[in-house]
Amino acid sequence: MGITGEIKQISASTLELLKEDPLLVEVFRDAQWLPESALWQRETYGLGYETIRKKARARFDKLPTSQGLSRFIPGNRRQWKNNYDWQALEQQFLAEWENPELDLHKYWLELTFLLAGYVPGYYATSQRKIPELKVDQGYKKDFLPFSVIENSGWDGMPLVNAFGAGKEIGDENTTSYGPMRYLLPGDEVGEILDGLLELSREGFQNRFIQESQKSEPVPWIDWSEEEMLDWMTDYYNEIVDYYQSAVRQHKALLLYLT
Fold it and tell me: Residue 140: which residues within 8 A CB-CB, separation 6 or more?
């Protein structure tokens, strides 16, 4: 299946809770697997997933007596910052998962290139060099630290870091592929939405076409796949819709790999 990219809307109050106590980030993500989660009503899963539900339930049942998390660093137990009403917290997190995440599947890499102009993790050695994409020497993160760059040297349209932006939250091991990142409701989510709309569906498609017609287009996209442009356009539309929904509802966004 490979590494997938996810964008998740959450309320401003839940984000503030996670920022206050980053140990709760893993608990929040775990809540989607609880037997009571709306996830199981949206999808049909085989019997093998019953084990996942039972393990999630067991982990949550232990939270009231747990001092913190030591899952990744044995013997180094970190403390919760507050005494929580765990039953209320569980219900709060379950309510957040009633609204499904936007699953970019394995195409988060191609989408980041087409939207933001770089290939995550490969920007330093990529054949593609856009003048505005500069980072300090020694920068080691997979995603570049910007939201929107106007009037890019690529095509005069904005570079929009719709999946790569945001501040890190939680542990490096919150997911199997590093920490989650977050965008604040209002200005931060709205800035990226504005960039997506300015880029436009036509501009997005033109980028794809222009790159595909080069003698040596970037090798991270399967240019031989006849339906790739249609797939990428569908994902662009879904990203715009998800950001628009977040702006309307004044939601924050989590962005992460899994």
Answer: none
pLDDT digits (tens, 9 = 90+) for 11-28: 999 999 999 998 899 999
The CA-atom distances, in angstroms, between 168 and each of 74, 101, 172, 254 are: 23, 18, 9, 9
For 68, the 3-state DSSP assignment is: coil
* DSSP structure class, residue 222: -
Q: And the tokens for 37?
A: 């989660």
| DSSP-assigned letters across all residues of 68-110 | S--SSSTT-PPPPSS---HHHHHHHHHHHTTSPPEEEETTHHH
User: 257 - beta bridge partners?
Assistant: 5
131: confidence class by pLDDT, cuts 50, 70, 90: confident
Rounded Cα distance, 56 and 38, in Å: 14
| Domain membership of residue 239 as a residue range | 5-257
Residue 41 neighbours by CB under 8 Å, 6+ apart: none
For the whole model, what pTM was predicted? 0.90
Q: pLDDT for 142-180, tens place per residue?
A: 899 899 999 998 899 999 999 999 999 976 655 557 789
Q: Bridge-partner residues for 255, per DSSP?
A: 7, 181
What total number of domains does the chain contain?
1
